[in-house]
Amino acid sequence: MKEQKGVFKNLYRNLITPILQKDTGVDAEYLTNFSLSLLSFSSRKQNWPVISSILSNLNKEFCIVDKRLSQNICGINFCNPIGLAAGFDKNGNAVNIWRKFGFGFTEIGTVTKFAQNGNPKPRLFRLAEEEAALNRMGFNNRGAQNLVKNLHEQSIPLKQNRQNMCLGINFGKSKITGLSEAKEDYLTSLKLLIPFCDYAAINVSSPNTEGLRKLQDPVRLRELLREIKTLPNCPPLFVKIAPDLSFKDIEDICKLINEEKIDGIIATNTSLDRLGLEKRKIEQTGLLLSEENGGLSGRPLRKRANKIIKHIHNIDRRIILIGVGGIDSPESAWERICSGASLVQLYTGWIYKGPQLVPNILNGIIKQLDIHQLSNIKEAIGSDLQWVD
Ligand SMILES: Cc1cc2nc3c(=O)[nH]c(=O)nc-3n(C[C@H](O)[C@H](O)[C@H](O)COP(=O)(O)O)c2cc1C
Fold this sequence. Notes:
By secondary structure, this protein is of the alpha/beta class. The chain is 35% helix and 14% strand. The strands form 3 sheets. Strands 3-4-7-8-9-10-12-13 form an 8-stranded parallel β-barrel, surrounded by 4 helices. The chain has a 3-stranded antiparallel β-sheet with strand order 5-6-11, with no helix packed on it. It has a two-stranded antiparallel ribbon with strand order 1-2.
């Protein structure tokens, strides 16, 4: 594979990677917020000559352009299949920046109707050796109204006026809203944000908002999705599910997704299962992972998340799948696509591996397309083709 040479890759390797090699030291949430504030500033000041020059160099270093990577899904043009997963840019603060890192699409949020602080800190922990993370952030975000303001401040055009930017928005329920009023919460946020949404992700799977996962129950989910579908100009809808559902639960969800004509599923969110790491101690709290609240992400999630994609694809090939969970290499991205995902998203792996992960994955996919003599990424989806070195 072509070795990426570049300033930003080396900066990340020298400044950030050493921090990521230890559980303790620089707090994980502090590091995220610090990086986000730099990116947020750049997104708002992208026309300043110095910022514009930095962004153009970022673009040169990380963007891979190849027609074979592009697909039209639900009428949306995805220039490549790699997206930033929800939760990193919860308030949509750096929306102009993500494509400069080579992402083909970005999912901002989770946004809720009301601004909320989330759970008490510390609430995000690195598991450096396993390249994993435990988080119980609890939908800390500034609310839907503020997200609209943020998008305006960054001059993000409405979706019909946009080119070269694919933006998904992930919606959740506010903590203070009871389960029986959840619908109203989602609807209020959606109404405000539909003009910006290429697609909407309906998050019913975060483990850190009490009761939220009960919305995965088919009766409740059907009711919620039906209401959302009645909204004027409703964008394509994707339901984000947990990796902890049984295959039977997943089959029920697939059935209703089909009946209600929902476009697709994002699989998966973080896991309440400890995935073999029950005895792993969290240094900051002195507790074992089995004793901690929160969702597990990163490399340990890869196998489970892939199995779920495969299962859904086998149940119903019409459901469009976005695969997420433990993708941290070209091989793991290729595996997810060949299992049935049309698109994949990165979060924890992108942090550990650094921004070169996106071009590394895309170059890897292009090589596999060549080896398997495929003319577009679409032909690889659900093909079960193996990675060839
Ligand atoms: C710190 C953190 C915050 C997250 N916040 C959200 C969120 O607000 N909404 C959401 O749908 N998923 C959220 N996620 C889940 C990710 O989008 C993704 O589904 C999950 O981490 C699995 O992917 P990964 O193994 O590549 O990290 C969060 C994950 C992490 C690590």
